[in-house]
User: Fold this.
Amino acid sequence: MDNPLDRDWMYNRMLGRDFNPTWLVGVNHFLEFAKSQRDYLESRQIRCPCRKCKNMRYANLDQVHADLLRNGFVADYWCWTCHGEEENDNPNNNNNGASSSVQFMDDDEDENNRYEDVVYDAMRGGNFDCNVGDTVYATNPPNNGAEDFYNVLESAQRPLYEGCNTYTELSLALQLMSLKANFNMTQGNFNGMTEIMKMMVPQENLVPKDFYKTKKLVAKLGLTSKKIDCCKNGCMLYYKEDEHLTECKFCHFERFESTKSRRGRRSSKPVPHKRMHYLPLIPRLKRLFASQQSAPHMRWHFENIREEGVLCHPSDGLAWKNFNIAHPDFAAEPRNVRLGLCADGFNPFSNNSQPYSCWPVIVTPYNLPPEMCMTRPYMFLT
Assistant:
C-alpha cells in the first residue's frame, strides 16, 4: 500500500484530453486495496468515493471504476478511511494546495457532463463490450469495445472547434438528430443544414459532414432499430425460428422480389417485398437501470406506499394489488419492471374509412413515479 501522504495522483485525473496513465494505475491500486477489505469480501460491494457519491453509496467494483472515470475522487480523500485504511495523524501535510486545483478542474469538466453521462449510461447498459474494472485495463491495450467507449467519450469532450465552449462533437450530433426527428426533416434538408453550418464556423471544425456521418456517431450509443422482413400480405414476420424461410407459411407468397442487376443477372443480395423496423425493448429497459437519472426511481412504486383509498399511481389500484397476490415471487423483487401497453389506431378488421392503418405500440414502465412514467422520454415506441 502506498503512503497516504503521497497521493497527488488522485486529483490529477486528466492529462490534456486523455486520462492520466498514473491516475489509471492508481485507481486500479485503490480497487485492489478495497477488494482485500472485509466489507468487500462479505458483500462484494464497496463505498463509491467519487465526487457525486461521496462514499455514501455502495456499488460493485465495475460501477465504482466507471464513476471514478467520470467524476474523479471526492475532495480531500487522502486517507481511505471508508475503505479499511487507518486514519493518519497528518494526512494533508503534502497536499495543501490540491483542493483548489481540483475545484478548478471540476468546473471546466462540468460544462459537458450531460453528454458524458449519456456515454457512461450506454456503457453501463452493456452497449460497449468492455470491462472497465479490469485490473490490467490501464496497462494493456484496450479491446475493441473499450476502444469504442473511449472514442465516443472523447467525442463528448472534444470541442466543436478550437475555442468553442458550448458544443462538442457528440452534443451537436445528438441535437441535430433530435431536430430531424422532431420536425420530420428529410435527409436532403439535414445535409444542407450541416453544409451551411460547416461554412459558418472556422475551417478546422468537427461539424458532421452529412446525415450518414452524424448517424454513425450517434449509433455507437446503442438503442438502434432492428429490420425484420414481413410477408407482403401481412401474414407473418420472418423472425426467430422463421428467419430463414423464403416464403410465407400461410399464403405461400415469396419473401423476396425477383430483382436483376444491370447485366441481367439475378442480384446477389435478395430484396424483401416488405420490411418493418423494430425497436427492441430490453435494451431500453436496461438503460433505465444504467442511467443515474432514472435508476433511483425504478423502485418508487414499492417504496412510496399511499394510504388506503388514495389513487395517484397504478400501484394503488386493485388490479396491481391482485397481481401481487397472484404472483408473489415476481412482486417480492421491486426492480422487476411493470409495463403498460397501448396501441393507438388499432383497426384489425378495417371497418373504418381510413385508407391505411398504422398501429403505434407504446410501452410505459410503471415502476416510475407519476411525474415520470407518463412523460414522453419514458413512453417507448416499440
User: Anything to note?
Assistant: The chain has four domains: 8-110, 158-219, 226-259+270-278, 282-381. Residues 21-35 form the longest helix (15 residues). The CA atoms of residues 288 and 294 lie 6 Å apart.
